[in-house]
Design a protein that fits this description.
The complex is a heterodimer.
Chain A (H helix, E strand, L loop, with lengths): L4 H27 L3 H25 L9 H20 L13 H20 L2 H4 L12
Chain B lengths: L8 E7 L6 E7 L2 E4 L6 E2 L10 E6 L2 E6 L6 E3 L2 E3 L1 E4 L4 E4 L2 E7 L42 E7 L6 E6 L3 E4 L6 E2 L10 E6 L2 E6 L6 E3 L2 E3 L1 E4 L5 E3 L2 E8 L28 H4 L30 H8 L8 E3 L32 E2 L1 H6 L3 E11 L2 H12 L7 E5 L6 H9 L25 H11 L3 H13 L11 H15 L1 H4 E3 L1 E8 L4 E8 L5 E13 L5 E3 L2 H10 L5 E3 L5 H10 L1 E6 L3 H16 L3 E7 L8 E2 L2 E2 L1 E3 L2 E3 L12 H8 L2 H11 L3 E2 L3 H13 L2 E5 L1 E7 L5 E6 L8 E5 L1 E4 L3 E2 L6 H9 L27 E4 L15 H17 L10 H13 L4
Parallel strand pairs in B: 3-4, 14-15, 24-28, 25-26, 25-30, 26-27, 30-46, 32-44, 33-34, 33-44, 34-40, 38-39
Antiparallel strand pairs in B: 1-2, 1-11, 3-5, 5-6, 6-9, 7-8, 7-10, 10-11, 12-13, 12-22, 14-16, 16-17, 17-20, 18-19, 18-21, 21-22, 23-31, 28-29, 29-30, 31-45, 35-36, 37-38, 41-42, 42-43
Helix pairs in contact in B: 4-17, 6-7, 11-12, 12-15
Classes of the chains: A mainly alpha, B alpha/beta.
Chain lengths: ~140, ~850
Amino acid sequence: MTPTLLGRWETRLLLLATVGVIVAVVVGLLVKNFAVPFAVLGYVFLFGLVWDVLYQATINYRWDRDWPTFFQVLAGIVEGALVWFLAHDGLLPGVDRTKLPFGVFIGMYATIWVITFMIAQGPLRLFLVRWRYQGGEVV
Amino acid sequence: MQIAPGTLQVRLSWQDPVTSEETVHLAPLPITLGRSRENTITLNSDAISRQHAALEAVDGEVVIADRGSKNGVYVNRARVQRVPLKDGDTFQIGPFRFTIEFDLSLHAPGQEPSASASLDFATVPMPEPQTPSGTVGVSSQEKAYISVQWTDPASGAQREITAKPPITIGRNRDNMVVLSGTRASRHHAILTLEGGQIIVTDQGTSNGTLLNGQRIQRAVVQPTDTIEMSGYRLTAKAVEVSASGAQPLAAAQPAPAPASGGWEPVRPTEMISAEPAQAGLLKLEPRQPDAPQLTPPPPLSPAIQALSQRQRSPQESTLIFSHESGLLLPFVPQPEAEKKEEAFPPPIFQQLVIPLWQLQQSKIAILETTYLAIGGGLGSFTWVDHLMIAGVPEQQIVVFALEPKPHSRYERLCNYSQIPSHERLRSNSDACPDNIWGWPSYGLREIFRDLGKGKIGSAIKVGAQVFGEPVLTDTYTPRSSDVFNGIDREAQRIGWGRVSRYGLARAIRMTDDGRYVVAVTQINQRQEMTKLFVIARYVHIAVGYPGIQFLADLQEYRDRTKDFYAVVNAYEDHHQVYEHLAKRGGVVMVRGRGIVASRVLQRLSEARQQNRNITILHVIRTPVLAGHRDGHTRRKVENHTEMQPFNWPKACAGGVLRRRLEKADDHTRDRLLNDWGGTTTAKRKDWRQIIRTGQREGWYQLRFARVKRVDRNQTGQLFTLLATDDRNQPETWTPVDFIIDCTGLEAALDSNMLLKDMVESYQLGRNPKGRLRVANDFELTGMRNGPGRIYASGAMTLGGPFAMADSFIGLQFAALRSVEALKKGGAPGLRGLGPLRSFAQWTRWVRGKHP
């Protein structure tokens, strides 16, 4: 991928607002609590916006200004770990850590991440022909 | 005994450069060739003079003579004035390549041709000079030729060849009928004539040969029968071949075999040193004076020096693709000085806006269409693909192409520059000319195909590459055969064969009703040029590279010596170099350091596996220790070559760099393109290994030098005079056997007559790279004519908004941009590419349904 900052943000918003919301609803039904899954989803998105600024600064140090697939995977792990540790330490307002066992968190986070990763790798462009030419920007 | 002039019968065969149809001509000597109708064989092409060449019988020899033509006669790649020919020789005139055979079948039954005499050809009585030529059969009893017709399933084009049996059919290129697609066997079937009947024989294939639906091993074919193999349907019939001017062969009187004329054929192979200059380690000092065959050539006269040093115009150091065939001509065509009977485009084209009534009164056929694509290569193909997927019906689209398949020229250049079908292109996994979405990418397709074949290991390898590139592994690139097969499939799906037709666009003008008229010439089946006006509202121009660029000193050498054998450009057909080296070894000089040089080095190392006596001298002008810089980054350098996976940094395709270039002004674009582009090669494990091994074992040497002159001595040994920037170092004459110029394709706009005329007539100006000035949506805004629009894409737009202009992704991007702009402007038939329509169209792509 060769994203732009706006492209990262727009794609993140688009995928979390669709795939992310659906998965959060399913998890909410399973654990009979919607507040925690949606709060986690919200933090993943908000932290992501900041992460994206950092990533975008990094690619300026790469000749090809690209973002290799391998980096995407590393980024996914780091982002997930940060949210988990903050939630675990009770540092995320609105997330009741007693209602967020590790299994639920990792199940929800991994599902969302894998699905959005796969969609961004290809199927998204079947709907948005221009997406790949404009660094992930949707409009 | 000597043969009386004019009594010799020869068989000439050649391929129509346009239709690839083979023509066979049987006639007594003398035979004249040229554009004028008075010739025995009329050849219709701009590169042919009216009286071009003649074949004559002189002192028992068949001699080919140049009749003062502009562009010359080439025998075995060397330009000749007058040389004897041998049975089976080939010669080239303009885009036509002839094979000459001295027909032995004319011996009377029972008379055995002498096996030993090299000049063992039969004679026929001299025809009455004043008798009008008649068309007669090869034999009154037996039809000696087979005519095969079929439809190319990829392009839908009708194909036909007429040739002497046996006719071989199969997937390999050495067959007379080449079947594309993987289901055909390499040598699939063979057609023979027995007792006047055509026999088809299956060559033991796995998928079989069907005759009228029945699988057969060997069967008689009637003219109404259909032969089927791997998706192709062929019909065959026995025919008589006309031989204008020939006497009925049944009446031919055999004459005794003539005495040998004793001539030696011109063989470029023998002209260069037969022995490798030196085996094993390269020694680059001047040779010992006691080795006479290695004496450097005498110094140049001041006049010749001046000639070689003078600034050459692009025209002079360029080989141009034939307008008629798209094939590379072995010479620089000069415009014919002779005045043509009727100028085309006609004088009304001197106006910038032509009233419609003038076109209608011109008595030239007019074709009207809404959308017109000029070029017919990959640029036109991606544009038409986008148009159709966005909703335009094929009835509103016309394409004028020079070759039957959109990838014909590209594929030929790949083959010449040593990328055969199993090798990989320098292209991204998701730059797919056969799929506007770029998904599934080539990498994904390869993984699925490997899995389907049970090749798990190979699938994992590709998967790891796609996943790990470029950090953990080399960058994935697709196999050229996968790309071409995909394009064939997409061409079939969108009906490319129905919208594309042969035609050369010569000039374009605005019309007074907000459209454009294009003057097109076509060549009909009788080799005659026909003229056509095509009127369209929306025009797309993608004509590609006009030719290949030669280093000036090499072109000067070739002009002077006509040695096309040992001094070659990597983009022309030069397989003889590798074959010669594999057989006999030698020293080869590679000039240039880009991706083509890498591939040529790889090919040389393959030849080295057959013959250890190949040494490589890689000459580049200057050392490169640090790569170009841009912002915080610097391009990596290895072996004095800058490295990047593709021709441009990846983000030029769709990331921050694409946007930066699009927003920049002319001056900045020029600077950015210079920083990002230039000569680079890709980091490939095998290429790096070749260089390392070669340096360690001493058969590869990199040398920084300027080539001051290339010449050969009296024995034909090739030398180059190398100089360095260090004045204290002496210039050295270095003997080599071959020189391969790997410096690139010619991209001067002025080499293309259509573009040059348009840019100059309408004063369009040029972009900083001297090419077409296009807007960010690839419109040639200077050509706007009311609602009419002209767009361009490809190599001729480099210097504009998109760096990867000549790449697959660049053609797709330009196509998408122009189609979006057309949609915005309300062009008819366009329904756009919104999310739902786009997805629906993709599902049609998956199912192979017409858009």
